[in-house]
Design brief:
It contains 25 helices and 21 strands. β6, α10 and β7 form a beta-alpha-beta unit. It is α/β, with parallel strands linked by helices. The longest helix is centred in the first third of the chain and has 36 residues. The protein is globular, with a radius of gyration of 31 Å. Strands 5, 6, 7, 8, 9, 10, 11 and 20 form an eight-stranded mixed sheet that branches. Strands 15-16-17-12-18-19-21 form a seven-stranded mixed sheet, with helices on one face. This is 749_t:CDS:1. Keywords: Amino-acid biosynthesis, Lysine biosynthesis, NADP, Oxidoreductase.
Length: about 750
């Protein structure tokens, strides 16, 4: 399975605790009134009865000029909810992303000059909007808004420093002098007063939100018969300008929340999640009442990153509670993961090799998500079966796990596996297409699937075009595995040392330069995917071009040797990288030119001259020709890994990418042939979750919730190879924005 970097899912739905507008006066107030503590004239807000809660997507979406008036009405309601939500967020009365509750202090911490400048702009906007509300003709109302917004954009964008000075200058007025607003006379609708006092950002923003609620309310008054032509175009432009103004606020809040989450989840390591909840084994009385769900997670040093998206997904349900178990050395990381969720998440220390301690914890929960190394899953499953608790893992079903199938069925327990990205999402969409073809009387002639977790192209700025988000040792060891697959009806086998030689260019999109190579044994998927008719069955890995040849040279020189070396032991004498390289090459010289010549003469990697020069320059970039002292780790492999992990890690603000493609060769019922592809391309958000963490953690969380809900009710050792399991997961995945593009030709 590909592995996650620092935590990042598609933005979750924003929840709101109230749909009514916050107001300081009654609904019987005049259309325009001065409210207590309001800094400028404000209309009396009218709380709407609205159907849904807002999301950041509600603000991002726009009015479609060709949409129906009903669709427009729905969008107006969403806008109103968004304004009300933003107001509550500034008041510290709401959880952004269902996770982080921001306070006024968080907003105060924003750039003071920027906040001051924005306050003046919001004041002018609110003061200018209020009089326009008195306009009773819908066409005139929209035209006035358009002109005013154009004037506002001009005023705040052109030479902003000079123009904004006038908002904040302290007027020298006598105490008897009238301090009421003075219009500048520059604009038709924009009201630009001299302000003799410093504005309060929060009160200004609260009042603006209430005015915007009223502005959008008025869009629905006597406009149904005007919903065509120029009126629609004008409303579209007005909405777009409001959206642009308010989006600056949502971006700030998003960043505050992301920074908070990122800080909490920066170094999450090993964990175990456990949950209790309603399931099919509960008696009728239990089903009829709401019951708290408690979840427990156990994970190794890199799978802890997956725990973030999985935990967030599970805790969207208010009845769910989470316990995160981890080794003592990682308890602070577990606490960091639990902290944003308050009392609904708890971190504990847990040693899964301690049978008594493990039993004591698992007995308390309905479900366990095990993200520890696959060799330890049997310990968790054995304990779970004692207490008839369900288990979810993202790992392949090993022989050791498969051995629990009979006991799990007898105990009425679900042990769900292989539900991450690879394995996981790959199975879901392979089975989906294969079943669709078979149901129509067709055949699968070939199935080729490649998946890669990579840095985004703009961040692939090193000789390997790869970055390590977890232990590089696991990545490099996987490159020594042999491979086996079907091609044109014959079994092809590739020995580990030759794997990189077998890599070939693979086209998905013109903008990517991928190479692909086979991944372990693909032959069993003929049976797993129920495609005995297939002549070609191949599953493999994607990397950027240049990766295989670079790795091949490292292998041939001996850098991936994992046997212990005396000269690399921690207590050995200091040794430099050029000395290590000279030793491997049996060279008497440690000079860079001599070492380069030695590598060229021995034709390591069997690569072309130009490619070899690129690789040698990569060696220099890594410091292998340098006199820098190595971090001795006992073996060549581990010593190299220490350098790779330091030089080839993700930097601040860098994002990763996940690419998965299935390619099906299909024969239809009538004998005609076609090709179909299913492609997933996802980018991480460096401020929250990586693409890898999202595409592994979210499917895992979904599967856990479906088991708790009894939607996945089958007992025994399971994996996503059947529609009854897969279809509900696909449905929920697509709600999260994780979708594949299906094309055929």
């Amino acid at each position: 399975m590909e592995n996650p970097r620092a935590v990042s899912p598609p933005i979750p739905h924003i929840s709101t605790s109230s749909s009514g507008a916050s107001t300081n006066n009654s609904n019987n107030a005049p259309a325009t009134s001065i409210l207590p503590n309001a800094p400028f004239p404000q209309p009396a807000p009218r709380p709407p009865s609205l159907p849904s809660t807002p999301t950041t997507a509600d603000l991002a979406s726009g009015i479609n000029p060709h949409s129906s008036y009903e669709n427009f009405t729905e969008l107006v309601h969403k806008r109103i909810l968004t304004f009300q939500y933003l107001k509550r967020a500034h008041e510290g009365r709401i959880h952004w992303f269902n996770t982080v509750c921001l306070s006024k202090e968080d907003f105060v911490a924003l750039d003071k000059d920027d906040r001051k400048r924005r306050t003046g702009g919001f004041f002018i906007l609110g003061a200018s909007l209020a009089p326009i509300l008195d306009n009773t003709n819908p066409n005139d109302y929209v035209r006035a808004l358009m002109v005013m917004l154009q004037e506002f954009e001009y005023h705040t964008n052109e030479n902003p420093r000079q123009k904004m000075k006038m908002f904040f200058r302290k007027s020298k007025i006598n105490k008897d002098e009238d301090a009421s607003f003075q219009e500048s006379g520059e604009y038709t609708y924009l009201f630009v007063p001299n302000i003799p006092f410093e504005l309060d950002y929060f009160q200004t923003f609260y009042t603006l939100c209430d005015i915007l609620v009223e502005i959008y309310h008025k869009f629905l008054i006597d406009t149904a018969n005007l919903w065509s032509g120029s009126f629609v175009e004008s409303v579209t432009k007005v909405d777009g300008r409001f959206k642009k103004i308010i989006s600056s606020v949502t971006k700030d809040i998003d960043q505050l929340a992301r920074n908070a989450i990122k800080e909490e989840l920066r170094s999450i390591d090993s964990m175990i999640m456990m949950s209790s909840g309603n399931n099919s084994s509960n008696n009728k009385k239990d089903k009829e009442k709401e019951k708290d769900m408690n979840v427990s997670i156990n994970s190794d040093s890199w799978d802890g990153f997956v725990a973030g998206p999985a935990a967030e997904y599970i805790l969207r349900r208010p009845e769910n509670h989470l316990t995160i178990g981890t080794a003592v050395r990682h308890i602070e990381h577990a606490r960091a993961l639990a902290r944003p969720f308050g009392s609904r998440a708890t971190a504990i220390t847990l040693d899964v090799t301690n049978e008594e301690a493990l039993d004591n914890q698992i007995s308390k929960y309905d479900l366990v998500i095990s993200l520890i190394p696959y060799t330890l899953h049997p310990l968790v499953i054995k304990s779970a079966l004692k207490f008839k608790k369900n288990v979810v893992t993202t790992s392949y079903v090993s022989d050791a796990i498969k051995a629990f199938d009979k006991a799990a069925k007898e105990a009425g327990v679900t042990i769900m596996n292989e539900i991450g990205l690879d394995p996981g999402i790959d199975h879901l969409y392979a089975i989906k297409t294969i079943n669709e073809v078979h149901q129509k009387g067709g055949k699968i002639l070939s199935f080729i699937s490649y998946c890669g977790g990579l840095p985004a192209p703009e961040n692939s700025n090193n000789p390997l075009g790869y970055k390590f988000s977890w232990s590089s040792r696991g990545v490099l060891l996987a490159l020594r595995n042999s491979a086996k697959y079907y091609e044109n009806g014959k079994i092809v086998e590739i020995d580990g040392p030759d794997l990189m030689d077998s890599a070939k260019p693979y086209h998905i999109y013109p903008g990517f330069a991928f190479v692909a190579y086979a991944n372990r044994d693909s032959t069993s998927f003929k049976e797993r995917y129920n495609i005995p008719e297939a002549k070609t069955v191949l599953r493999g890995t994607l990397r950027y071009q240049g990766f295989p040849s670079f790795i091949k040279v490292l292998v041939d020189i001996g850098f991936l040797d994992d046997t212990q070396q005396d000269y690399l032991q921690p207590d050995a004498q200091d040794i430099s990288w050029n000395q290590v390289l000279a030793r491997l090459l049996s060279s008497s010289s440690i000079q860079e030119n001599d070492l380069r010549a030695e590598i060229r003469s021995k034709r390591f990697g069997n690569v072309e001259h130009d490619d070899l020069e690129i690789i040698l320059n990569g060696f220099k970039w890594l410091g292998l020709f340098s006199s820098d002292l190595v971090d001795r780790r006992g073996t060549l492999l581990d010593t190299l890994c220490a350098t790779l992990e330091e030089k080839m890690k993700y930097g601040e603000g860098e994002r990763d990418m996940v690419i998965l493609q299935h390619k099906f060769g299909i024969e239809l019922k009538d004998g005609t042939q076609e090709t179909q592809t299913s492609t997933l391309l996802a980018y991480g958000n460096p401020a929250i979750y990586s693409a890898m963490a999202t595409t592994v953690g979210i499917p895992c969380g979904i599967a856990a919730q479906l088991v708790l809900d009894g939607v996945i009710s089958k007992k025994g050792v399971l994996a996503p190879y059947s529609p009854e399991i897969n279809d509900p997961i696909i449905k929920e995945l697509e709600k999260e924005g994780i979708k594949v593009l299906e094309e055929k030709w």
